[in-house]
Amino acid sequence: MKKVIISILGQDKPGIIAAVSKILFEQNCNIENVSQTILQTEFSGIFIATVSEDLSANDLHEHLTKQLRPLSLQAYVKNLEQKELNTNSPDPEPFIITTKGPDRKGLVANITEIIARHGVNVTNLQAVFKGGDDPNKNLMIYEVDIPKYTDQESLYTELREKAAALGLDISIQHRNIFEAINQI
């Protein structure tokens, strides 16, 4: 068995997950991971599935495209390359960075540029912008993995300085602390 990654995009409507999962089942695929979300009115789903060696990514793409056409959905399929994990790198620590503030172009770019420069990986990002200057209507939540070798003080200082320059409130917490505080 080999693995493929499948992306599905289109206007949201009931039954998308059911349609995709049925097609994959009919093609003898096993879904291993799914991440889906709705952004405004658009559906976005990513599936990782195991497929038989005799089913090519192109053939699976053709099946998905043909059967999802009535739902006006777009599909993309590619083989998932399995890479060996780098065991020389120490386990990263999970953190949550949140920003609140007025909406403006470049907020995500400015924050993620600093995160990347420090070798930090963004594992999940949720950004909700409702526009205007009400800081409670514009929120970004970055889930990140910070390697143990990262100079956290330097990272935090840069993030706080950039947030202040952009008029953002910023919070940086270990994921365990964030989850404990937000369970109340």
TrEMBL record:
Annotated SUPFAM superfamilies: ACT-like
Pfam families, per database record: ACT_6 (PF13740)
Residues covered by the ACT domain: 5-82, 96-173
PANTHER family: UPF0237 PROTEIN MJ1558 (PTHR34875:SF6)
Protein name: Amino acid-binding ACT domain-containing protein
